[in-house]
């Protein structure tokens, strides 16, 4: 089956802050199948459910800050269950000592146990610093070895940015990988750009996602050169759909 395509709403965060309902409706009108949340902008679970019902969009997952889970684990997970989300993604963590990462791993084990009781999977989303925080150590692999039932949402852009061979790393950890983040990379300056406008092998990423039978492909963009975030999101879904059709024909 072809994967569904979602937008990580951080990509259009300013639009979400201005009018969350309109931003979600714009995502639907662009042709996305779903969203990955990055905050709820004061909405209740019932309001989120109604907005999803009205738009027909599904939840690919939600980025939930480490601090929220650490400080209000049950309340946070109960909210995610109430909106029907089955993937909670810790979007960022950074520590300059091994002890810091060990403490984080202990917390993730606790989070994962509580999440699984609610039918929720716990994910971690990488950037590039996980390969440089501790000299000569891959802290993503460290988490893989030290946290039970932890999945990865692999941001392929950031693997490339870190100088890691994306395909070798993914193949070595494929049992724990459930999602990919898609964005392209321009060279000067080095920053994210629209799919197809940069140097990353996006089609090969889609082929790898097919091999791993991923249910969702998630678009994210953090830097914008000439297009507005909404314009870029629209261009990205059109390009990714085109590639998906080619790969799955």
UniProtKB/TrEMBL annotation:
Keywords: Isomerase. GO terms for molecular function: isomerase activity. This is Sugar phosphate isomerase/epimerase. Pfam families: AP_endonuc_2. Transmembrane segments: none annotated. Gene3D superfamilies: Divalent-metal-dependent TIM barrel enzymes. Residues 25-241 form the Xylose isomerase-like TIM barrel domain.
């Amino acid at each position: 089956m072809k994967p569904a395509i979602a937008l990580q709403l951080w990509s259009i965060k300013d639009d979400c802050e201005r009018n969350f309902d309109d931003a979600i409706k714009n995502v639907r009108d662009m042709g996305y199948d779903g969203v990955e949340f990055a905050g709820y902008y004061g909405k209740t679970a019932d309001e989120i459910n109604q907005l999803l019902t009205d738009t027909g969009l599904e939840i690919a997952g939600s980025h939930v800050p480490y601090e929220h889970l650490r400080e209000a684990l049950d309340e946070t997970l109960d909210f995610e269950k109430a909106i029907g989300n089955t993937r909670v993604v810790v979007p960022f963590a950074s520590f300059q000592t091994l002890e810091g990462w060990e403490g984080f791993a202990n917390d993730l084990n606790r989070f994962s146990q509580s999440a699984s009781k609610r039918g929720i999977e716990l994910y971690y989303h990488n950037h590039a610093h996980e390969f440089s925080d501790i000299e000569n150590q891959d802290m993503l692999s460290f988490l893989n070895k030290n946290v039970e039932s932890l999945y990865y949402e692999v941001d392929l852009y950031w693997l490339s940015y870190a100088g890691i061979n994306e395909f070798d790393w993914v193949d070595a950890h494929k049992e724990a990988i459930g999602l990919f983040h898609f964005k392209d990379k321009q060279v000067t300056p080095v920053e994210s750009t629209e799919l197809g406008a940069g140097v990353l092998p996006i089609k090969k990423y889609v082929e790898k996602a097919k091999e791993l039978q991923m249910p969702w492909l998630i678009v994210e963009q953090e830097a914008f050169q000439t297009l507005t975030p909404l314009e870029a999101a629209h261009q990205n879904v059109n390009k990714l759909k085109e590639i998906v059709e080619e790969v799955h024909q």
